[in-house]
């Protein structure tokens, strides 16, 4: 009986792990519902990052209430940040498309140049909404901090970008595996990626909080 209690008791690693999985599935569903209006993708993502951080650091937090509170609190700034990112990504994609149609040396150079710029913007994207979820700043200051952190912590910025684009890489490179994993990605893909990114980003943010 003691062995069973250790395995299935409230403090056991198994129960804690299953609780964490259920919380991530619940948050992923909230995130997807919050993204449905499309213009609120940034707002919902900022709320998700706040909640996965609480999920990592505070057991028993009322995640639904926290998500709704963060969703409302971040609505204006997160929506504006998402709109800025959408415009930047659209411009870069349009430039890459034009360069691809040139079929010249200049076009080839343009492809690599715009692709590099696009990668940089995607790395910045990895910081923006987590910064909005964690700190109270103006939109301009959040953009500035994201650019600085991206360049100063380039390896971690690259790791965050790869995690964010993992479903895209799977779809492009391994479509069969992507289709098999699609149910898992649907139920907890976004929250798991945000959870893993949180570990990387917290190590960056703490340096600035502590003034290191």
Q: Short summary of the structure?
A:
The protein is an all-alpha fold.
How would you portray this structure in words?
The protein is mainly α and 212 residues long. It is built from 9 helices and no strands. The chain has helices at residues 2-8, 13-35, 41-57, 63-73, 75-102, 105-134, 139-152, 154-173, 175-209. Helix 2 (13-35) packs antiparallel against helix 3 (41-57). The model has no long low-confidence stretch (mean pLDDT 85).
What is the C-alpha radius of gyration, as a whole number of Å?
Answer: 19 Å
* Shape call: globular
Helix content: over 70%
What is the H/E string? HHHHHHHHH
- The structure class reads mainly alpha
What's the β-strand tally? 0
Labels describing this entry:
single chain; 212 residues; mainly alpha; 9 helices; 0% strand; globular
Secondary-structure map:
Elements: H1 2-8, H2 13-35, H3 41-57, H4 63-73, H5 75-102, H6 105-134, H7 139-152, H8 154-173, H9 175-209
């Amino acid at each position: 009986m003691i062995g069973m209690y250790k395995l299935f008791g409230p403090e056991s690693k198994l129960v804690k792990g299953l609780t964490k999985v259920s919380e991530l599935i619940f948050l992923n569903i909230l995130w997807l519902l919050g993204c449905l209006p499309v213009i609120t993708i940034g707002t919902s993502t900022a709320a998700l990052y706040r909640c996965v951080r609480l999920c990592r650091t505070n057991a028993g937090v009322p995640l639904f209430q926290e998500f709704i509170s963060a969703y409302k609190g971040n609505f204006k700034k997160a929506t504006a940040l998402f709109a800025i990112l959408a415009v930047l990504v659209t411009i870069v994609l349009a430039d890459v498309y034009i360069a691809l149609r040139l079929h010249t040396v200049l076009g080839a150079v343009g492809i690599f140049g715009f692709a590099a710029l696009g990668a940089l913007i995607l790395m910045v994207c990895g910081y923006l909404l987590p910064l909005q979820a964690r700190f109270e700043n103006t939109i301009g200051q959040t953009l500035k901090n994201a650019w600085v952190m991206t360049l100063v912590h380039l390896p971690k910025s690259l790791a965050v970008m790869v995690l964010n684009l993992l479903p895209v890489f799977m779809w492009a490179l391994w479509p069969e595996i992507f289709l098999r994993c699609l149910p898992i990605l649907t139920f907890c893909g976004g929250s798991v990626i945000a959870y893993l990114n949180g570990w990387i980003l917290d190590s960056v943010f703490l340096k600035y909080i502590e003034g290191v």
